[in-house]
Amino acid sequence: MLSRNGRGFAAVVFGPAARVLVRLGVSPDVVTVSGTAAVTAAALTLLPADHLAVGALVLGALVVADNLDGQMARMSNRVSRWGAFLDSTMDRIADAAIFSGVLLWALRHLDGALGAWTVGLALACLVLGGVVPYAKARAEGLGMTANVGLAERADRLVVVLVATLLVGLGLPAAVLTAALALHAVASAVTVVQRMRTVYVQARGDSVALAGDGDELGGDGGTPAERPAPDGAARPAPDGAASTNGPAGGAAS
To answer: Which residues are catalytic?
Structure first.
């Protein structure tokens, strides 16, 4: 929901900056890589150092600004498959950095069962954050689609970053643990949904192929290609003369 509805807001906020960067000749690829580097640096320095409130605000701004490179590409007519690939790859790095930062914070600042749960859930989010987009990309690579899911990337990140901000402002650490649990469950459900979607499409392809085989005679061959019963004459190939004439003599 946020991924769809947030595009208009991001276009209004970052549109002027995108136009300036395009006029300056800045490449959208440079903005993509620079944004990922900024997210990685902020996540791995601010969060482990217990600057949760500042870290969440900085990361939130950078995640929203991730829309900037796409706007620049459209303005400069530089939309390409390479740009889409680069953007998706950098998103995976940024997500991994955010959850690594949360994991390191939990290791350094939480003890006992709460710390163990938080570390485990952050690790689960880190792993599932790679599986969710992989399932979609693999489906598309096989000629199918998997555009389903309980929550998209933006929805999941907002939940975790808002919880991080609230804990940084004084709420119990359990709030962040619960947010990580919600993120992990949403990601796992999304993986299952995409697997089911691809399974249905693959089963449909199998049924269609089986139907084509039935039309060709059940075993996939034409009547002329199937062996005739023992002792029965076999039809000659199209265009070939019979080896026997009408009276049993040689063909002319």
So the answer is: 91
Q: How many whole angstroms separate alpha carbon 74 and alpha carbon 76?
A: 6
Global model pTM greater than 0.90: no
Write out the two tokens for 35: 């944004």
For residue 117, give every residue at least 6 positions away whose Cβ sits within 8 Å of its Cβ, in sequence order, or none.
177
Dihedral (CA of 113, 116, 122, 126) sign: negative
How far apart CA 246 and CA 233 sit, in angstroms, is: 14
Long-range contacts, stretch 7-16, CB < 8 angstroms, 24+ apart: 7/67, 10/64, 10/65, 10/67, 10/68, 10/71, 11/67, 11/71, 13/64, 14/64, 14/65, 14/67, 14/68, 14/71, 15/71
Torsion, CA 63, CA 69, CA 74, CA 76, rounded to 10: 160
Q: What is the pLDDT of residues 143-194, one digit of tens each?
A: 999 988 887 888 889 999 999 999 999 999 999 999 999 999 999 999 999 9
